[in-house]
Amino acid sequence: MESTLPSADFMGFESLLSDAESAKLDDVRDFLDKEVAPSAEEWWNRAEFPIEVLPKLAALNLSTPVQQGYSYLFSGMVIAEMTRADTSLATFFMVHHDLFVEALHEFGSEDQKARLLQDAMDLKITGAFALTEPLHGSDVAGGLSTTATRDGDTWVLNGAKRWIGNGTFCDYMLLWARDTADGSIRGFILDATLPGVTRTRIENKIALRTVQNADVLLDNVRVPEADRFAGISTFGDTRRLLRGSRILVGWQAVGQQLAAFDVARQYAVDRHQFGRPIAGFQLVQDQLVRMLGNTTASLGMMARVAQLQEDGGGDMPQAALAKAYTTARMRETVALGRGILGGNGITTDFRMAKIFADAEAIFTYEGSYEINTLIVGRAITGLSAIN
User: For position 246, what pLDDT does the model report?
Assistant: First the structure.
């Protein structure tokens, strides 16, 4: 019966893609259906990352899609489809490709690109994005406390980072630090195996358990000048990357809602109570329609943001509004879906518990709901409520 039901893309936004992009998106779905969806809950329950999947993921040749000529809409829909199958894998993909690899494209020297870019695109090496610190998250722009001190042809790094996705196993990190000489912001390609680098996995998470987040300590770590990003000198350079990744988290919110709707609708059709499917009850249909409405509104907003990006727009306040709005709708959608499954909604055996829990991470990272709201508030009033 599932195949005869309308798509969760109820307004047909996918039809805006080119024929080639639609075909490529089908390839992505085929990969996810075969290689990811059957094992995603098991990886999540064990809190283990499936390194063995990376060669097959690399074979899709989707590193930084826009750099390869794909549209922003296609790039966003790839993230939505990955999230629909497994939020953790989508998060890995974003951290590695849309932060680390994108930084090589944007800020890397010709030497750095020659050494690292192709291997990173092919997932022969993996990267992380080390910005957040134990005491600085939302205020990291002004509070960045990790330091970099020039010493001849090397830099000496000291400090700590927290919540670094891919941090336990990555080969390199794009690490941000403050220059002790003039207070400017520097970016470094940090070989994660250098002496003085200590990585510890963050345990006991209730969301994105497959993602290997790390605490990172830096104790007099020496990095050659050749591994400093010459194109990074201010926090504004960071914002260029964060704007794009913030938009992609909005697409994750879409994917999370697509997943919740898929699971809730199928469960409601299959689950019988009082002698008939619970999908036939008015209250359940109301919940499903609210879920679909939230998903469609979120998808519509993100499709419009993609159009703005194509025209060179999609500024930080617009990205912040998209991230805040879509993740708020997502939170409501996954809660409705969890409720439809009743007691079965709190076990990963029925997928919904994982979807419900992972939504909390999406709601928080790349700027909390509150911080993104204040960014938009400043844009529409001309007054900052942050400081």
Answer: 94
CA neighbours within 13 Å on the CB side: how many for 285?
5
One DSSP character per residue, 143-178 reads H---EEEEETTEEEEEEEEEEETTTTT-SEEEEEEE
What percent of the chain has pLDDT above 90? 89
Residue 171 φ then ψ, to 5°: -85, -35
DSSP string, 171-233: SEEEEEEEETTT--EEEEEEETTSTTEEEEEPP--SS-TTS--EEEEEEEEEEEGGGB-TT--
CA angle (359 as vertex; 33, 349 as ends), nearest 5: 50
How far is Cα 20 from Cα 9, in angstroms, rounded to an integer? 19
Q: How many residues does the structure list for the chain? A: 387
Condensed to tens digits (0 to 9), the pLDDT of residues 269-294 reads 999 999 999 999 999 999 999 999 99
Q: How do residues 119-130 score in pLDDT, each as one tens digit?
A: 999 999 999 999
Strand partners, 224: 154
Distance CA 266, CA 212 (A): 31
State the virtual CA torsion across 333, 334, 337, 343 in degrees, nearest 10. Answer: -150
Euclidean distance between CA atoms 55 and 106, whole angstroms: 25
Structure tokens at 338: 């969890």
Residue 2 is predicted with a pLDDT of 46
Identify the CA nearest to 188 among candidates 174, 170, 199. 174
- Name residue 203's amino acid: E
CB proximity list for 225: less than 8 A, separation 6 or greater: 153, 154, 155
Distance, C-alpha 282 to centroid of its chain: 35
C-alpha to C-alpha distance for 309 and 332, rounded to whole angstroms: 27
Side-chain-side CA neighbours of residue 253 (13 Å): 36
The rounded radius of gyration (Å) of the Cα atoms in the chain is 21
Contact criterion met (CB below 8 Å) for 326 and 258: no
Measured distance between the N- and C-terminal CA atoms of the chain, rounded to whole angstroms: 55
Give pTM, 2 decimals.
Answer: 0.94
Q: How far apart are CA 186 and CA 178, in angstroms?
A: 6
Average pLDDT, the chain: 94
Which residues, other chains included, contact 302 with Cβ-Cβ below 8 Å and sequence gap of 6+? Answer: 76, 80, 247, 250, 251, 254, 322, 326
